[in-house]
Design a protein that fits this description.
single chain; about 160 residues; mainly alpha; globular
């Protein structure tokens, strides 16, 4: 499978991605645990059907020491015993924040309150940002049909 076109090689596409990637650096350096960032990125990408991002975040998380068991269970996190209460709150916020159109009210107050119970304001800002940025990146990759499988950990810096 080939991408519909080289979004990264296009001046407009590359410029847009440059700004999205720079925002992701702020999130990466935030107090939100790196493990939580990767779990959320993976779950958002699974929901959106972004093979490229699923490949990337699985490999980056593995490279950072995440267990295969936890990565395999992200898709069914509600039934899995391997996630902390804080991680579960982040995954729930990621799901509701990604599936906004599925709920008349968007993200419920209960889901937000649960996340706020586990994360301070800086961490919440990073959590909201990673969810929003991953949704944007997923959409780019799905729209251009970016193929999955060739990503190398740390490829984008």
């Amino acid at each position: 499978m080939d991408a519909r076109f080289d979004f990264h090689g296009n001046p407009v596409g590359a410029g847009a991605l440059k700004h999205i990637v720079s925002a992701s650096r702020v999130i990466r350096d935030s107090p939100l645990p790196a493990t939580t960032q990767e779990l959320v990125a993976l779950r958002v990408s699974q929901i959106n059907g972004c093979g490229f991002c699923v490949d990337m975040h699985t490999k980056d998380a593995t490279h950072a020491g995440e267990s295969a068991q936890r990565l395999h269970l992200v898709a069914v996190w509600r039934e899995a015993k391997v996630f902390t209460d804080a991680e579960r709150a982040a995954l729930e916020l990621a799901e509701e924040g990604t599936r906004i159109a599925d709920a008349a009210g968007g993200v419920s107050d209960e889901v937000w309150a649960n996340a706020a119970k586990h994360y301070d304001e800086d961490q919440l800002a990073a959590l909201v940002s990673v969810i929003a940025l991953l949704n944007a990146l997923n959409r780019v990759n799905v729209l251009v049909q970016q193929p999955a499988g060739d990503y190398k950990p740390g490829q984008f810096g």
